[in-house]
Amino acid sequence: MKSVVIEQPGELVLADRPLPAPAAGEVRVKVQFASICGSDVHIWHGHNPFAKYPRVIGHEFFGLIDAVGDGVDASRVGERVAVDPVVSCGHCYPCSIGRPNVCKELQVIGVHRDGGFSEFAVAPAKNAFTLPASIPDKLASLVEPFTIAANITAFLKPQPNDIALIYGAGPMGLTAIQVLKGVYGVEQVLVVDRLPERLALAQDNGADRVFNNSDIPLAAQLEGVQPTLIIDAACHPSILAESAALASPAARIGLLGFSGEPCSITQQALTSKELSLFTSRLNSNRFPQVIEWMEKGLIQPEKLVTHYFPLAEIERAMTLFEKDPRTCCKVILHMG
Ligand code: NAI
Ligand code: MN
Ligand code: ZN
């Protein structure tokens, strides 16, 4: 089978690999579509501290179950599935309280183990979620990115009367906009980015107001409006302090970033307004919820997609995705 392998940092190859056999408790998926994420690019360039090489990348993928391992119901062969990349031990403290995404032995498919930029991939059977016919094949790999927004909003508990502010109108910011508007009915969703093309996408995805902070700081443009719910989907270390300064008293702030650089902020900036801070990593069992949102039409995955490429053009697709945020949002690989 053909697989996209990062042999070592910087070295991406479309390799011929042996077809994997599903182990006990696993399914094998004949991958149909897979979407590119920033973290795939990071693994390629050696910027993901968790990745081990060589690695088949890709953690956002959809396909058909074509074989099952011992202990898995053979009737699952043929099912259309989206695969949750979070593989957890099931018995550590975070697993025991329903937070497998921060399992002490966390394994992420496409990061710690081989992933879905491949003609076939194996995964635990419980990670393969059956999709209703109403979710089309070519959008089904987008369940995973929406689970990131599902996870952080579960902490933030958005309300219709919130004034929400989202930093960053990349794929993560856009999924957050859609979930705040379509699922939670938040009346005011404000979005800030530096690229006008991204802000246009934000409007298309439901943002009520957009701000470009490339020349004028956001504070000067908000005219005293104090957001009550803030999501940092741009993830620069300076954003936490700015968010705390802009936030309404009693606001909630959600962070998604993984930077190794410190954020500089005073206790006073947080405590004087009694701000709540939440962080969110990947997703904790949120595939069923996102599948239901898609089925009900509460979110529109097609609004994120700008390009489709065949698997053979992986390097071109990844390079375009990385270098051209003005024209690219979600880039999807077609395996067939
Ligand atoms: P992206 O790079 O496509 O989007 C980021 C956007 O933020 C860009 O449009 C950029 O112009 C904008 N931006 C950058 N600095 C800004 C600033 N100071 N003010 C306003 N806008 C600014 O990335 P994507 O895929 O949307 O991911 C966003 C972040 O989320 C990344 O840092 C990624 O590591 C993180 N992430 C976290 C996950 C989690 O589970 N915690 C999962 C996936 C992504
Ligand atoms: Mn992703
Ligand atoms: Zn665990």
TrEMBL record:
Assigned keywords, A-Z: Metal-binding, Oxidoreductase, Zinc
Cofactors demanded by this protein: Zn(2+)
InterPro entries to which the protein is assigned, alphabetical: ADH-like_C, ADH-like_N, ADH_Zn_CS, GroES-like_sf, NAD(P)-bd_dom_sf, Zn_alcohol_dh
Ranges where the Alcohol dehydrogenase-like N-terminal domain occurs: 24-132
An example molecular function term from Gene Ontology annotations: zinc ion binding
Family under the similarity heading: Belongs to the zinc-containing alcohol dehydrogenase family.
Name this polypeptide is given: Zn-dependent oxidoreductase
Organism of origin: Pantoea rwandensis
